[in-house]
Specification:
Length: about 150
């Protein structure tokens, strides 16, 4: 009997502090601390581990056209070895936010992720705008533009 696919990341009781401190890269730890403060300020939500490696803030419920649904953090990040991965809106960031991304600084964009080498290399005010827009969309205050 087939079972429904489980969400990749769900809130856990893992300590965010322990997770962030365990990163061996001092610069990545510092960037993660700054991003945690920014996202906490903008969401008004505490940091919670979603799965073993995503620091998320708040949550929203989604339902895909296929009928699959679940919960995900409003915004989140993961301080990985090669990049600081910032989880934003679903879909293509390039299409939705081309003007902002052009001003952000060095980055790669995926479906709903930004890949940053260092926070010091990007324009923090632009990053904040991207995070704020994602929060508004996920809270249903704003519409995602395509």
């Amino acid at each position: 009997m087939a079972t429904a696919k489980q969400p990749a990341a769900v809130p856990t009781v893992i300590s965010v502090d322990d997770f962030l401190v365990s990163n061996p890269d001092e610069r990545r730890r510092a960037d993660a601390g700054r991003l945690r403060a920014i996202m906490g300020e903008l969401t008004g939500e505490p940091a919670v581990m979603w799965g073993p490696s995503i620091v998320g803030f708040g949550s929203y419920h989604y339902t895909y056209e296929s009928g699959r649904s679940g919960d995900a953090p409003l915004v989140g990040f993961s301080p990985r070895k090669q990049h600081l991965v910032v989880y934003l809106a679903d879909g293509s960031l390039d299409e939705r936010h081309a003007a902002l991304l052009a001003r952000l600084g060095p980055h790669r964009a995926g479906k709903g992720c930004l890949y940053l080498k260092r926070l010091d290399d990007v324009d923090e005010s632009v990053l904040r705008k991207l995070i704020e827009r994602t929060i508004r969309v996920h809270r249903g205050v704003d519409q995602a533009s395509h």
